[in-house]
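Check my protein:
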Amino acid sequence: MAKATASFVRCLAARCWDILECTRCADIRQAHAMEEDLIEYAPNIPDNVLELIFSYLKLQDLRNCALVCKSWYRFLCDENNEVWRAQCLQKVPTEAFKNDLLSVVPSYKAKLRAFFHAWNPFDCSRHVYIKPNGFTLHRNPVAQSTDGSRGKIGFKHGRHAWEVRWEGPLGTVAVVGIATKDAAIQCHGYYALLGADDQSWGWNLVDNLLLHNGDAHGIYPLLNNAPKYKVGERIRVILDCDDNTLSFEKNYEFLGVAFTDLPDKIFYPTVAAVYGNTEISMVYLGPPLDG
């Protein structure tokens, strides 16, 4: 069986090489004819052969392969197959699997997606560093400074959710929310930096205030004697770029819409903290589940 599979892969590789050579020689008509033959044959390739072929491809190539035919699309939609497992274990740091941090994203593909959306080590305060797991930031004990970090990928379309977990004391400022690239990520003093200008929107977990453009926009959630955040509780941020709203959940309980009428801009997951040695983890979840 292994010998037959290897022979098949060699034949398929040779066919793809012929197409490439025809393209280089400007024999576009022949290349297109070969492509049509290959696409016609593609749905008949066994899953074990696809697994072998796809294991050598880059992520961008896998995305293109999903568009070839229904069979390949079906195969790559299995987010726990060996292809996604290999990609995940290759790219996601080993430290990220040593606790329950990624338990909220059960599939290998979802874990991989979360890693590409994690904190950006090149877009954070100089007093912050990203830990080896790739998902957790650590704020150094620097006096009179408010420090933040943004995620690697921003959003302008669709609906997105991510989970934030504060691991350590909150101090006087602990804000979670969104910001554009134009929002400041560090400032002198202890200050609610996220929500301090018109480029950021935040929820201060210390006093339950919503913040934007330097102003408090009321208590959140809208409950009598709303309980304060306790260290370790899971905060889920829900950004709806279609309805231009920002909402939050705490421990899987929806707290209501926090901000409406968000502008048509690219928003990044963002936090701001002041307490020394505090750590904040962020895991991107993808589109939120309704209900």
Summary: The chain has two domains: 1-77, 98-286. Residues 98-286 form a domain with the Jelly Rolls fold (CATH 2.60.120.920).
